[in-house]
Structure formats: C-alpha cells, structure tokens
C-alpha cells in the first residue's frame, strides 16, 4: 500500500523558525506542503520519511527566508496493481461500490468487477451476490428470496484486489462571475482514483470467507424480511 | 519540485504505523514544551521582567498532517488488520522464514501486511499457490501464525475511528494530568500569581468565588 518516493524541492524557512534545528524546520515545512496531497503519478503523500540531502540555506534578495535545496523521501499511499488490500464499504449505488481506508476514500469497485451473478437492490441500497445461481438478469435476481442473497452492506470490511489507478489533473477554469450570478458547482473529478475488484474466490467481505459470521447475517435479513 | 523516483522502496503497514506513532508522540512532546515555555514567559512577565524567553520556536504541525496522521493511524490500527498482534521481531522472523519459498517481493509484503491465517486468504495473495507450493501451504500459514502474538496488546489497540478519538482523548488527558502535577508542587503561590496576571474580567469573579468558599 505504501511506498517511499524520492523528491527534490526548494524549501523556504521563515525567519521565525531560525531558532529550530534546520532539519526539524525543513521537515515541518515539507510536511506542510505535501502531507495529505495527491501528487500526479506519484500517489497520496502521507508524511516525510527522512531528508536525504540538503544544501546550504541561502537568502535571496527581497525576503528574509532561507532557501534550501532539499532531496527527501516521502511516505506515499499508492497500492500497486494486483495488490490485495482491506477496506470498508463507504457507499453503494447502481454503478458500483465506493470504499474507504480512512485517510483515502476514492477506491471504487465498478459493477463489472463484482462477483457474478450480482445485482443492486435499490431498497437496501446495496449490492448482493447470489452464489451458485444460473440467473443472469437483474429482474430475475431481484425476484429471489432475500435470505439467499449475500449482501455487501455499508460499513462492511471487504478484501479487494487493486486493478488499476488513475490520476486526473483538472486545470482550474477561467474565473467565474460571483456577484449576482449563482455559482454552479461542477462535479469535480477526484485527483486520484483506485479501481478495485472482488470478482474472485477469496475476495469480498471478509466475513464471507471466515465462515463464522454468515449465520448472523442471515438472521438479520430474516428479521428485516 | 521534481520527482526523482516515484517508488524507490515499498513500506509495510507496520513500518508506516510506527513512523506515524512516533510523529504523533513527537508532536505531543513539542506541544507540551511550547506550552511550558509559554507559561514560563507569562509568569516571568508577571514578575515584572518584560524580557521574552529566547527558546526554540514551536514548529506547529500543519492541519493536513494532523488529519492524515490521525486517519491513517485509525485505519492501520483497526481490529480487522493484524497490526495490533504484530511486532518488529515477529515480522523479521516471518520474513526470514519465508525466504526459502521463492515468493516474490510483493507477495511477501502482502503476507506481512495481511498476515493470512486461512488458506483462502493466501490463495488471493499468492498466484498459482497450488502449483507452486502444493502441500507446503500449511507451512507458510504456520510461519504467519507464529509471527503473531496471541492476544492483541491492549495499550495500542484502537478500534477504528471511535477508538482513535478515545486514544487522542487519553493523550490529552495525560497532558492535563501533568499540568495538575506542576500545580500541586507549590500550589498556592503560583495560583495567586496567576490570578493577578489575569487581565480578563473573570479575574475578580474567580477571586470572589474563592472568598465565598472560605
């Protein structure tokens, strides 16, 4: 899930931080800039791991900052393709399932990567899987008795395989008129999206494969139905 | 900014968690130190000297860092990940034990991260498990089992986001307790001084209340 990336940057230290050891000041400054940010084709930065190299701090004309050229290593969240990770279901809709790992929640399972045959139940707002069933169409699947369905509920812990990831770098458009005109919020694409799959033996809700919690789930659904 | 190498090395979840924990405790210590310096300055000013104490400035952790730190620790120490039962020695032993099996680096990393104890979990991680290992699957699972401590450590066990909030609450509480300790040392003297230093309107009220109590 995590890896180290080596980056090079020029970092400015404010005079008020001159009293601190330069290394600490640099790390604080780099963390301020990179932590919790998605870098294109790198991943989601977590924090500084260490500083590999730092030059002499230089003062430029015009400000009192000390400018350091620094090479440092960052801890980055970027699961590799085919890696298996454990995540929680954040929400479900017709197009698939959205997952979260707490600090990052742009993990998606598209419908095509769900175990087959499966369908989306609009009443429960959840996808379900019918193991060992010959049915294929959604209407047929929705006619089956609820007790047989294996639901993937919200908040469930789920084991997934990373299939691909994608970075989007949307340029900010021209400035919009704010006075008098209602601002229209366009749906923004997330900068980093990870596409996952559970269409495989052993993937999906962890409880499916432990063989222990399935009974409880069945009970719940009986009560609801 | 220039990316020299986007992926120079892989990190296990355990390493990331210990790094983040270290960062958090570091930050806590710094905050405490800054608090103490601030307090000393205040009392010094109250005694008449206007000289601010020269000390190292407080490097504040940015909001972004705090957010991701708390959330990542919350995820990594959740009860559905095996980290709470893992230890540095256990992982070292596990990696050594896995060396003769010709697993790829990525497979070993995932075994360390997920600590599979059931065959079905191992099937997902290792490609063509049956052809490659056949009846040695159980051996691998035994290695994993041996690397885990039986009971999760209570002190580090946090449960998802809720657990995380309680964790921070506990650390905050410890700060408060520490402050109380310093109060107790020469309680009355400092307390009076603090009251006179206070410029707020609550100052007089507080004094009155105390009189009433007496």
From TrEMBL, chain A:
It holds the Pfam family RNA_pol_Rbc25. Gene3D superfamilies: Nucleic acid-binding proteins, RNA polymerase Rpb7-like, N-terminal domain. It is found in: Nucleus. Keywords: DNA-directed RNA polymerase, Nucleus, Transcription. One of its GO terms (biological process) is transcription initiation at RNA polymerase III promoter. Residues 83-209 form the RNA polymerase III subunit Rpc25 domain. Residues 8-64 form the RNA polymerase Rpb7-like N-terminal domain. One of its GO terms (cellular component) is RNA polymerase III complex. Belongs to the eukaryotic RPB7/RPC8 RNA polymerase subunit family. PANTHER family: DNA-DIRECTED RNA POLYMERASE II, III, DNA-DIRECTED RNA POLYMERASE III SUBUNIT RPC8. This is Polymerase III polypeptide H. The lineage of its organism: Eukaryota, Fungi, Dikarya, Basidiomycota, Agaricomycotina.
TrEMBL record, chain B:
InterPro entries: HRDC-like_sf, RNA_pol_Rpb4/RPC9_core, Rpb4/RPC9, Rpb4/RPC9_sf, RPC9. Transmembrane segments: none annotated. Keywords: DNA-directed RNA polymerase, Nucleus, Transcription. One of its GO terms (cellular component) is RNA polymerase III complex. One of its GO terms (biological process) is transcription initiation at RNA polymerase III promoter. It comes from the Eukaryota. SUPFAM superfamilies: HRDC-like. One of its GO terms (molecular function) is nucleotide binding. It is found in: Nucleus. Belongs to the eukaryotic RPC9 RNA polymerase subunit family. This is DNA-directed RNA polymerase III subunit RPC9.
